[in-house]
From TrEMBL:
Keywords from the named record: Cytoplasm, NAD
Signal peptide (UniProt feature, chain positions): none
UniProt record similarity statement: Belongs to the 3-hydroxyacyl-CoA dehydrogenase family.
Keyword Transmembrane helix: no
Gene3D superfamilies in the record: N-(1-d-carboxylethyl)-l-norvaline Dehydrogenase, domain 2 (1.10.1040.10), NAD(P)-binding Rossmann-like Domain (3.40.50.720)
Pfam family of the protein (one): 3HCDH_N
Domain 3-hydroxyacyl-CoA dehydrogenase NAD binding, residue spans: 8-188
Transmembrane annotation, as ranges: none
Protein name as catalogued: 3-hydroxyacyl-CoA dehydrogenase NAD binding domain-containing protein
Stored SUPFAM superfamilies: NAD(P)-binding Rossmann-fold domains
């Protein structure tokens, strides 16, 4: 590996972790794929190799590098300190369990530098639940992808109240560089934007970015598969999906509040955006 190439670390080598590793490698980044069990790391690297070679055969490989070149950028390890050494960005991809993720970020907090971005792929855990109390909280952000990130480019960027604005901008630029479609949320909210698509009365996300949530996110996925098949494929079957995400789904549904009246200031703002981009 070239020591001058930028490095990123992926913490967790499941479906999301593998997909993120492929996305970063397609952008020319060195990738350290970390997991606690060597067998899991080996299996993940084998799956990535198989996928990339198949993608190259079908002409669907992302990036300008050949499959073998991209694969040479991805290595695995079971030592967290080794994984994050010299990285500019850490993407956590462990299971959707608050205590597990807090444990991981607690460990990272002790070993990372003061300029690396600490990012979580969580789909519904709030940044205040994940990052509050960390020494490096200003460097923390949620970068929630749509599964699988390799095929669906949308990434929701959700800052902690103490996140330095430069971290949001740095993460936004990085996601654009590797071919993703990032959208910025001004503050955290249950379900982020993706899981509460219709509600923007609090100014959580711009109207332009809200459209991207559908056009570069949900719309791309739902053009091929429906919500129930998505849930089944997002975990080890539907029962496992409900077990993983039940608590978060219930919390999000309860937070929707009153039905907006689709009038007033928000109506005018959305109309202005539509006029600006030529919809009206």
């Amino acid at each position: 590996m070239d020591p001058l190439q930028p490095r990123v670390a992926i913490v967790g080598s499941g479906l999301i972790g593998c997909s993120w590793a492929m996305v970063f490698a397609s952008g020319g980044f060195q990738v350290k794929l970390y997991d606690i069990v060597q067998e899991q790391v080996t299996k993940a690297l084998e799956n990535i190799s198989k996928q990339m070679k198949e993608l190259e055969k079908t002409g669907m490989l992302k990036g300008s590098l050949k499959a073998d070149q991209q694969l040479s950028l991805i290595t695995g390890c079971t030592d967290l300190k080794e994984a994050v050494e010299g990285t500019i960005h850490i993407q956590e991809c462990t299971p959707e369990n608050l205590e597990l993720k807090k444990k991981i970020f607690g460990q990272l907090d002790l070993i990372v530098s003061n300029d690396v971005v600490l990012s979580s792929s969580t789909s519904c855990l709030l940044p205040t639940k994940l990052f509050t109390g960390l020494k490096h909280v200003k460097q923390c952000i949620v970068a929630h992808p749509v599964n699988p990130p390799y095929y669906v480019p949308l990434v929701e960027l959700v800052p902690h109240p103490e996140t330095d604005p430069s971290i949001l901008e740095k993460t936004y630029a990085l996601m654009k560089k590797i071919g993703q479609s990032p959208v910025k949320l001004t503050k955290e909210i249950d379900g982020f934007a993706l899981n509460r698509l219709h509600e923007n009365k609090e100014g959580i996300i711009s109207a332009t970015d809200l459209d991207l949530v559908m056009s570069d996110g949900l719309g791309m996925r739902y053009a091929f598969i429906g919500p129930l098949e998505t849930m089944h494929l997002n975990a080890e079957g539907m029962l496992n999906y409900c077990d993983r995400y039940r608590e978060g789904m219930i919390r999000v549904l309860k937070s929707f509040g009153t039905i907006p009246d689709f009038s007033g200031e928000i109506e005018q703002k959305i109309n202005q955006v539509c006029v600006h981009i030529g919809i009206l």
